[in-house]
């Protein structure tokens, strides 16, 4: 919740802070239905609390303190740990579509070392200048209740793309898909999908979409296909495998039958989703790019 003076209460995490994080992975930041909310993304999570503490101004202060006190070994140790933390931050960057030369890797490593220091120092200067300090006031509204943790695991099972030269985007595609499948659940703004087919089923397909607008009415809509599986399915598969390991031939046959049945159901429902998705795309005038 936000207060009139700019104060806030936060129920998630930001800037990679992972200390005490108990997030279930179901989405704790309200992004709005179809991702149309005010906040649609946060900074990428860091490499853990050790990496976060070894970034920023802290390691610079410790190195300088070691030099002033004549503790060269301690200063060198803090510097080495800061370099390792910067390397960890660099390795967590998004995958680049091209290879970097050793010189470019060195520049990136240096930026991952210096950028947190510059950012944190600027914030500290601003806090001192405005006499700001962490805390809240009575004008801060109570945060809304978080959604119930998801009762399903979400697995990726493919992607599809559709092209339009008439300005038709993912909203039309999703509306047509919802009409095609009948049993449909829209994202309430907390989940990591746009729509789910047969949400009460123990294996239910879902889609996550995005549209790229290329100007002149040209739109490329990408669809990620998902399978949402209830947790007890994984528990049952684990028990079947355990029974097969300690049992005889009959146990192995039964376990394989259970596994094959689950996989067959998942593949069949994914196939039905692909058929319905293609039919919905044709209905609204979207085509598969060649």
> Stretches where pLDDT falls below 50 for ≥5 residues?
1-27
Count of DSSP strands:
5
Total domains, how many?
A: 2
Distance between the termini: 47 Å
Helical amount among residues, as a percent range? 40-55%
Order of helices and strands: HHHHEHEEEEHH
Rg from alpha-carbon coordinates: 25 Å
Task: Name the beta content range.
Answer: 5-15%
Record the strand order, biggest sheet: 1-5-4-3-2
Mean pLDDT: 80
Number of helices: 7
General form: extended
**What can be said about the biggest beta sheet?**
5 strands, antiparallel
Structural class by sheet pairing and helices? alpha+beta
Describe the structure.
It is a single chain. Helices cover 44% and strands 14% of the residues. With 290 residues, the chain is α+β, with helices and mostly antiparallel strands. It has 2 domains: 1-149, no CATH class; 152-284. A hairpin with an 8-residue loop joins β2 and β3 (195-197). The protein is extended and about 70 Å long. The relative contact order is 0.12.
């Amino acid at each position: 919740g936000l207060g009139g003076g700019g104060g806030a209460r936060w129920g998630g995490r930001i800037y990679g802070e992972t200390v005490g994080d108990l997030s279930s992975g179901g989405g704790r930041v309200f992004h709005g239905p179809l991702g149309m909310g005010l906040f649609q993304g946060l900074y990428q999570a860091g490499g853990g609390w050790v990496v976060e503490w070894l970034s920023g101004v802290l390691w610079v202060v410790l190195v300088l303190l070691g030099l002033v006190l004549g503790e060269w070994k301690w200063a060198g140790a803090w510097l080495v740990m800061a370099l390792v933390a910067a390397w960890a931050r660099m390795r967590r960057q998004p995958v680049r579509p091209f290879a970097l030369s050793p010189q470019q890797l060195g520049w990136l490593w240096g930026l991952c070392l210096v950028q947190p220091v510059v950012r944190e120092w600027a914030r500290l200067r601003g806090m001192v200048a405005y006499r700001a300090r962490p805390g809240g006031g009575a004008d801060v509204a109570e945060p809304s209740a978080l959604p119930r943790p998801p009762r399903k695991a979400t697995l990726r099972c493919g992607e599809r793309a559709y092209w339009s030269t008439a300005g038709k985007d993912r909203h039309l595609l999703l509306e047509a898909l919802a009409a095609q499948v009948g049993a449909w659940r829209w994202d309430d703004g907390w989940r990591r999908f746009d729509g789910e087919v047969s949400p009460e089923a123990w294996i239910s397909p879902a889609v996550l979409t995005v549209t790229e607008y290329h100007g002149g009415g040209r739109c490329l809509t990408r669809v990620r296909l998902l399978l949402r599986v209830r947790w007890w399915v994984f528990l049952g598969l684990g028990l079947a495998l355990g029974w097969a390991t300690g049992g005889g031939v009959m146990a192995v046959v039964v376990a394989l039958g259970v596994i094959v049945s689950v996989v067959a159901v998942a593949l069949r429902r994914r196939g039905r989703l692909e058929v319905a998705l293609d039919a919905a795309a044709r209905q609204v005038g979207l085509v598969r790019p060649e």
